[in-house]
């Protein structure tokens, strides 16, 4: 083989090898991209199922919370009214009988109101502002503390799942405040700044050390729930100076 | 000055310039059939620009060679600079990240600056075989192709697409193949031409065929827009 022929073969095989390497590179890119797509699809599926699970849990918790509220209402309110009716009906005086009729009407109104709260459609039909107002009214009715709401109504438009998660998180925050903080006043402020809507739940209770481990798990759960609807959960608390929970959700 | 000898020019006409001119004419026809909105597509405009430019300078360089006039300056100006910049811009149009686009713009400026320094210092001449400039633009071009593949692998925007149905993928692949296969030949062109002319004539077919393939693909991109508009069939997404 002449020197020229061997040079030509060298160039030819070198070229073929180079083209093969290039093709391999491009094919590898496509294969890696496909793998990435597969992983991403699996991740999305996982997130979807997590989201559905969270939503189901939230619905169950709202129902349980509603049932315990109904239990309290039945015991503290309707039960008392029925006892009064019984006492009044046992009396022979006509004015007492008349009072009993009034109590019966009151019981009917209370039972109607309670029956509404038994299904989640009622929660879905309420606006978030109305729901918060309802919750704060109940808190004030217990006499534990004062409660107020300031709202610019930026949470009027919400998807069903967003509303359920927010309701559950707000319920949990209020419940925590009542159970642990013993506040004199709870304020909920709803506002928006650009594309971000915020709900601030502030109490002037005992506050707590946010660096303590035991305070983390419940908050972590609430933060995860906010994450499932694309929101953020922020908490600041100072011992003796109260707690501020901030829930952020983009429009 | 010698008279123009057209016979010599016709004799030299072979499949290479004719294919390029054919592709350029088909590309121009396809572009003329596009709607005003489709013509604004940056990738389509740059593809047409490359196809027409390559056909024009190859035709012109062939003509000069047939008249025994040194045509290196044509390749140095149009192939190494203008066409390279169009390829850079085409690759830039495929990138999604703004900072990556900025990098490509900076590479263009860097390339032109180096070329200016090399020419003004006399290190390279406008009518030499242009190895240094070709080497530089090929390396930068391969870097830009790498940037596209990096985005393909890392950005979420690319997750929903099938790369095999993307014009950007095929155009980048063609650019990668063209520049990687041709730059070794271009930088050894002078040596091969002076020492092994027969080998030079053989290996020069590689960049020529790659150039035809690359131009055909760019032209196909223009027609893909047309086909998807007229027949609602998207062969590749431009």
From TrEMBL, chain A:
Stored Pfam families: HATPase_c, HisKA_3
Domain called Histidine kinase: residue spans: 69-251
EC top class, as a word: transferase
The entry's keywords: ATP-binding, Kinase, Membrane, Nucleotide-binding, Phosphoprotein, Transferase, Transmembrane, Transmembrane helix, Two-component regulatory system
Keyword Methyltransferase attributed: no
SUPFAM superfamilies: ATPase domain of HSP90 chaperone/DNA topoisomerase II/histidine kinase
Signal peptide range: none
EC nos: 2.7.13.3
Ranges annotated as spanning the membrane: 6-32
CDD domains to which the protein is assigned, alphabetical: HATPase_UhpB-NarQ-NarX-like
Catalytic reaction list: ATP + protein L-histidine = ADP + protein N-phospho-L-histidine
Cross-referenced SMART domains: HATPase_c
Official protein name in the record: histidine kinase
Organism: Algoriphagus jejuensis
Phylogenetic placement of the source organism: Bacteria, Pseudomonadati, Bacteroidota, Cytophagia, Cytophagales
From TrEMBL, chain B:
Keyword tRNA processing among record annotations: no
Domain of life: Bacteria
Keyword Membrane: yes
Keywords in alphabetical order: Membrane, Transmembrane, Transmembrane helix
Coiled-coil intervals: none
TM regions (residue ranges): 15-34, 46-67, 73-91, 103-126, 132-155, 167-189, 209-227
Name of this chain's protein: Histidine kinase N-terminal 7TM region domain-containing protein
Record organism: Algoriphagus jejuensis
